[in-house]
Design a protein that fits this description.
11 helices, globular
């Protein structure tokens, strides 16, 4: 019960702290708005009748990923600069719960990006979002949230020992958007890039979302993609567990959580 309380308090506090930051609000509100307009202009002559679905999904996913890059990954850096990283690491509350709470707060708040994308498509382009199989879309959406959260934890742990967090989170934003197929299918990428793409959970999450709104997709194909997403996400969960053990050992030996 105490763990759930720590998780809930951290999550709600993080949502409040994130929303007051101008950069987060830009990623949350302005970014999906601009991206929705750009994607609409890109897809308007595609010949697909349901291209509005891909405009909303693409801009929404890009907004979520931007929020993750500049919040979940950046939280470690902010705590370090504030001199509180070592404090929250050594508090009686589990450091892992605090990080997960921060990431859940950011991830849930970042879902507003989808609402912004839908509003832009509805108001400016008179388009509507249609999911032929609602249950498939709901499954894909929840799976997407979980996979993004797992990747966020992975990034947060990976950057705990680094003092170049700002550099790395600026480097990973657009490559992940391109490699994971947020805007266009990864099938058009070079074969060697596709191997990288399919090793990342967001790729399968995006593919699952696209299948859920495409219509006419067989249940077996949808489940196959879902199982692949679950498998890759499970591997990252194992990596996160092992990574924390390595980080915990390094922190206790080297004491590298401060600025100096």
């Amino acid at each position: 019960m105490k763990k759930l309380k720590v998780l809930w308090k951290t999550m709600t506090l993080q949502m409040k702290n994130s929303f007051v930051r101008p950069m987060f609000r830009f990623c949350l509100l302005a970014n999906p708005l601009v991206n929705a307009i750009l994607l609409y202009e890109m897809f308007i002559n595609s010949g697909q009748s349901n291209f509005i679905n891909y405009v909303i999904l693409g801009s929404g996913l890009m907004g979520i990923w931007s929020c993750i890059c500049f919040s979940s990954a950046g939280d470690i850096n902010r705590e370090r600069w504030s001199g509180t990283l070592s404090i929250i690491y050594t508090t009686p509350a589990d450091f892992r719960l605090i990080i997960i709470g921060k990431i859940l707060g950011n991830t849930i708040l970042s879902l507003i990006s989808f609402a912004v994308s839908f509003t832009v498509a509805r108001v400016f382009f008179k388009g509507d979002f249609v999911a032929p199989q609602v249950y498939q879309f709901l499954i894909a959406f929840v799976a997407m949230i979980i996979s993004f959260a797992v990747v966020s934890v992975f990034l947060a742990y990976l950057l705990t020992l680094s003092r170049k967090t700002t550099l790395y989170m600026n480097l990973i934003e657009y490559p992940i958007i391109l490699v994971c197929g947020f805007v266009f299918p990864v099938d058009i990428l070079p074969s060697w890039v596709q191997k990288i793409s399919y090793s990342l959970p967001p790729t399968w999450a995006v593919k699952l979302l696209r299948m859920s709104v495409a219509g006419g997709v067989e249940t077996s194909a949808f489940l196959d993609t879902f199982y692949r997403l679950s498998f890759v996400t499970g591997i990252y969960v194992i990596i996160v567990i092992l990574l924390y053990r390595i980080i915990d050992k390094q922190v206790r030996i080297l004491g590298t959580l401060e600025m100096q």
